[in-house]
């Protein structure tokens, strides 16, 4: 068994904690929910989300909340329960307006976007905003519509083909929003797909931004949705959106990816795929590259938890109600960080890791090393290794990649630290199945000297958690481990030593017990180094916590 690891290629990771590499902060990347059924989050899901402490959650206000009754009165009872539950996570809310009251839209037709009574529409919107942005102070951002370029195929009852039509719809909607809550941030349209050179989205956004500027209509952010396994696709969309805004003299306007995830395509949907570590690695690679190359972007992973869909919820206002049930219920994509019962998937722990990263970035340099039995500068196959520093790859904030041709271009590494904690994140991922198993050897420079608790948490296909809330999953093993060590029993560095939750460094970073693959005391000295296993399509986080 040991020989398997000996023959693996070894990537050298040199980390210099004396060289700053900017700020590491993934809080701009959060999750979204909703649009599928009107049921509020369960207590279990609220607790799981609250443990992550997301800055903002994006939701849909869909027509199935039926806030306008047949007599014209407004009834917010169902929506109140939904909104109260989301707010209980502690996150701010971005709410996307997707309602279509039957009195204003008597025909079920996605092509009809203008209500038969604009004044009544604005009254309903104003009352809704007053309730959830002023009285309850839940919603800070209001989005207008969702995937309006594909209509019902994107889960929205509107299909608006032109930028000029959408501008009119947007204008008549944001006016009552801002009248009721002048501090609101407003935007749209959550376009389906990235803006790219020469495509319809590019022309749409250019015209829409220009119309808002020319008409004096407030626009705080533009947004789009993208599902792709390729991190470069996500980065290209972000860069293009930024370029469009800057070309209009609107570089100050924010950019949100209101639905973001790996590709969903036409692949078969089975539960086993939802627990594949490749999903977590792919999502991690996307977020890593966006952080490094498009630090201005904000994202909402869709979605926080899986939901079922009853087509009867959509039938009164949605022609393709059966489509929605097939899309999210019969053959669900299983994209949730949690399943429908609130049990965690690997992606949940990915966000735990990202949010737990220390804030001070450290410089990283990767080199092609060798197998464990190879020389310092060679691979086990005798080929010479070649290094590439972060600047040569155009990466910043403590990230580096090994040059193409070394076979290690799928490796992403980030390092950060504070006074008591060093954090290292390694993602081994390829969208086309080309990733391979590695040994990663970390070499420290200018690190704090002293005794630390070194832990390795890895997402690699093995379920190192039992799905129970709280820190009970591994406490039995942890207690036995501590009782068997007389040298450091009771020391602060033992707190939560076998679970992701419990230690101060993980507060807000994990709602479930994620057991480490390695957990030991390590003395960090002047030329400290160590090695870890980083299998193909995995995420590895190493923490060193000092006393």
Mind explaining what this structure looks like?
The protein is α/β, with parallel strands linked by helices and about 550 residues long. The chain is built from 14 helices and 19 strands. The chain has helices spanning about 1-5, 45-50, 75-85, 120-135, 165-180, 200-215, 230-245, 270-275, 275-295, 310-315, 320-330, 345-355, 390-395, 475-485, and strands spanning about 10-25, 30, 55-60, 90-100, 140-145, 185-190, 220-225, 255-260, 300, 360-370, 385-390, 400, 410-415, 420-430, 440-445, 450-460, 520-525, 530-535, 540-545. The strands form two sheets. Strands 1, 10, 11, 12, 13, 14, 15, 16, 17, 18 and 19 form an eleven-stranded mixed β-sheet that branches. An eight-stranded parallel β-barrel has the order 2-3-4-5-6-7-8-9, surrounded by five helices. Strand 7 (about 220-225), helix 7 (about 230-245) and strand 8 form a beta-alpha-beta unit. Helix 4 (about 120-135) packs across helix 5. The longest helix is centred in the N-terminal third of the chain and has 18 residues, at about 120-135.
| Mean pLDDT reading | 85
Indicate the radius of gyration in whole angstroms: 25 Å
The total count of strands amounts to: 19
Span of the ends, CA to CA: 35 Å
Tell me the β content.
15-25%
Task: Specify the number of helices.
Answer: 14
Biggest pleated-sheet summary:
11 strands, mixed
Q: Output the structural class.
A: alpha/beta
Please state the overall shape, judged from the principal axes of the Cα atoms: elongated
**Regions with little confidence, pLDDT below 50 for 5+ residues:** 372-405, 469-512
What portion of residues is helical? Answer: 25-40%
């Amino acid at each position: 068994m040991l020989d398997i690891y000996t023959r693996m290629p070894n990537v050298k990771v040199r980390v210099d904690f004396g060289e700053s590499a900017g700020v590491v902060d993934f809080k701009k990347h959060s999750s979204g929910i909703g649009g599928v059924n009107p049921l509020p989050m369960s207590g279990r899901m609220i607790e799981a989300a609250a443990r992550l402490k997301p800055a903002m959650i994006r939701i849909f206000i869909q027509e199935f909340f039926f806030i306008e009754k047949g007599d014209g009165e407004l009834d917010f009872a169902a929506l109140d329960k939904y909104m109260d539950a989301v707010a209980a996570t502690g996150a701010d809310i971005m709410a996307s307006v997707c309602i279509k009251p039957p009195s204003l839209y008597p025909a079920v037709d996605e092509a009809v976007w203008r209500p038969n009574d604009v004044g009544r529409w604005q009254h309903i919107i104003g009352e809704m905003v007053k309730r959830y942005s002023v009285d309850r102070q839940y919603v800070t951002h209001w989005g207008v519509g969702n995937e309006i370029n594909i209509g019902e195929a994107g889960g929205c009852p509107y299909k608006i083909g032109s930028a000029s039509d959408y501008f009119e719809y947007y204008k008549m909607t944001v006016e009552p929003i801002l009248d009721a809550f002048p501090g609101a941030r407003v935007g749209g349209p959550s376009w389906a797909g990235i803006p790219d050179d020469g495509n319809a989205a590019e022309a749409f956004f250019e015209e829409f931004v220009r119309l808002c500027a020319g008409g004096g209509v407030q626009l705080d952010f533009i947004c789009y949705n993208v599902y792709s396994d390729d991190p470069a696709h996500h980065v290209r969309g972000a860069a293009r959106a930024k370029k469009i805004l800057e070309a209009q003299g609107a570089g100050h306007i924010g950019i949100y990816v209101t639905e973001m995830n790996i590709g969903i395509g036409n692949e078969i949907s089975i539960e086993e795929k939802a627990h594949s570590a490749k999903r977590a690695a792919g999502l991690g690679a996307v977020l890593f590259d966006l952080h490094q190359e498009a630090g201005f972007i904000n994202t909402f992973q869709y979605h926080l938890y899986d939901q079922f869909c009853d087509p009867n919820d959509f039938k009164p206002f949605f022609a393709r109600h059966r489509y929605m049930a097939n899309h999210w219920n019969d053959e669900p994509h299983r994209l949730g960080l949690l399943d429908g019962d609130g049990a965690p998937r690997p992606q949940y722990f990915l966000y735990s890791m990202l949010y737990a990263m220390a804030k001070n970035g450290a410089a990283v340099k990767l080199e092609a090393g060798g197998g464990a039995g190879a020389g310092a500068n060679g691979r086990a196959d005798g080929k010479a290794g070649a290094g590439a520093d972060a600047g040569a790859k155009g990466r910043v904030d403590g990230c580096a990649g090994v040059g193409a041709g070394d076979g290690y271009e799928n490796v992403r590494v980030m390092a950060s630290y504070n006074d008591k904690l060093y954090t290292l994140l390694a993602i081994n991922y390829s969208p086309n199945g080309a990733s391979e198993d590695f040994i990663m050897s970390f070499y420290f420079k200018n690190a704090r000297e002293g005794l630390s608790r070194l832990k390795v948490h890895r997402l690699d296909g093995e379920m190192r958690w039992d799905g129970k809330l709280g820190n009970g999953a591994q406490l039995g093993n942890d207690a036995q481990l501590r009782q068997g060590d007389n040298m450091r029993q009771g020391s602060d560095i033992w707190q939560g030593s076998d679970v992701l939750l419990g230690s101060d460094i993980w507060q807000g970073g994990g709602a479930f017990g994620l057991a480490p693959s390695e957990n030991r005391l390590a003395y960090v000295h002047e030329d400290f180094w160590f090695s870890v296993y980083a299998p193909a399509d995995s995420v590895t986080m190493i923490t060193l916590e000092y006393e």
